[in-house]
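User: Modeling request: complex.
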Amino acid sequence: MNTWNVSIGYHELTKHHFQRYSPGPDGLDWNNQPAPFRRYADAPFTPLELPDLDEPERTTPAPFDIGFVARLFYDSLAISAWKQAGESRWALRVNPSSGNLHPTEAYLLCGGLQVLGGRPGLFHYAPDEHGLERRGGFSDANWQPLISGFPPGVFFIGLSSIPWREAWKYGERAFRYCNHDVGHALAALGISAARLGWRVRLLNGFKSSTIAQLLGLPALPQIADEHPDCLLAITPQSLESAPVTVPDAQFQLREPVKWIGTPNRLSEETVDWPEIAETFGSIWEAPPALDQGAATKASPALRHYARSLLRQRRSAVAMDGETPLAAARFYDLLRTLMPEHAPFDMFPWTPRVHLALFIHRVEGLKPGLYCLPRRPEILPSLQKAFRADFTWATPPACPGDVPLRQLLSAQCDEAARVISCNQFIASDGCFSLGMLAEFEPVLAQFGPAAYPRLFWECGFIGQLLYLEAERAGMRGTGIGCFFDDAMHQILGLQDRQFQSLYHFTIGGPVEDARITTLPAYERRGTRN
Ligand SMILES: Cc1cc2nc3c(=O)[nH]c(=O)nc-3n(C[C@H](O)[C@H](O)[C@H](O)COP(=O)(O)O)c2cc1C
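Assistant: Request completed. Predicted assembly structure:
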């Protein structure tokens, strides 16, 4: 069997259908809930600065130093608030996560920062305390090949996922959610780096097994272990001449690293969901795929988000069913999702994800079903794959640089709700949408490593949707629970050329007054 067929098999198995959901646990075993924070016992810990909320934005690129590393994480993966309802207390983060379970872990791989020991090394980011845990030092023999070809001052961020955190609640579908979350984290890091004037590139070319080695992760991960996802190169310099595809050999360690610290155990027991392991296994030694695209183009338009906006991002738990979105805001929001806008320039591949929108309350637009192809060449394929009676009309006041097309005019709030596992957030907002990935042909061409990457692109779009919702005075929510093939049927899709991988909704939120908000961090002398 082709290894990409493992991804297809996993994808089919983990679809939600009206008559059966994807395989998952019968209930939630609260005594066995995985710990939300990874910590490495005995690893030296360095707390990071907690910057002011209203710090002015930089006009020149920040140098690489510990204060700016603190800001990079604070504005992307840190805790943004604690919430309390009765006896329950939980942390929210700048990046969202399905079920607030946060499977994503982040690592900093960098050259000698004095405060971190002066030598190149690997550090685990601990969001619970906003600090770095030192996992190990890299000798020159290990470090020099890594940075070869990159501008001076380059450093790397590695991401990994702990599937068990998601699988505890969602069973087999958890692999999808882990990868949505990677996409959200990538966008959060890209946006935070852009605030510092730093350039970011998602690196391609080496295997998962190589990333595992670099990040000090287990070679044959079990469901409760960390699975390597990706590496980002970040630098205050231009990345135009840096490699997009790094040969696997360049990132292989030359000498063994003595890792420091023992990872905490997340649960007393774990439940195995074998299809997740099999899907990860199919990717483990696969050369990471997807073509080179966006990263080679010139510096795109950059939208900067204020720190306060990044940290106020939340998911709506209910929408009010009445607040409309102004057309100009809506088009501005869609423009931000087009690949020529930063931080999409971090992706080394051609955009593969397009939007199918259920519009309910956008001023000047008739309620109905719409499509936003995110690159022009895909339009004929979408037109051929979708229902023959769709009109593909450009809405009357649509700006020339937003390729929105109307497919049909109809009240579609009920369809949107039903498709999203009957969640009212999908019908009671201004609009909701499905992210349609170019699917089977992409997997056939690029192999199984393309599968998680399509979810990363979706999560990335989702993060921008969250922030654009906040900018518009609205609120967004990612929707991982949807009936896959029912969505495909609405569009008339007959095969797996396109698949909907993630849904999203934006609207006027209804707040839950019973929940109180507490500061993200309380250190001596600070509360923020
Ligand atoms: C991939 C993904 C899927 C999600 N799916 C749903 C969903 O189906 N329904 C829902 O109400 N919220 C969903 N959410 C929202 C999460 O529950 C929310 O992000 C989490 O509780 C953390 O809260 P916050 O976003 O306010 O930080 C999803 C979020 C993500 C990132």
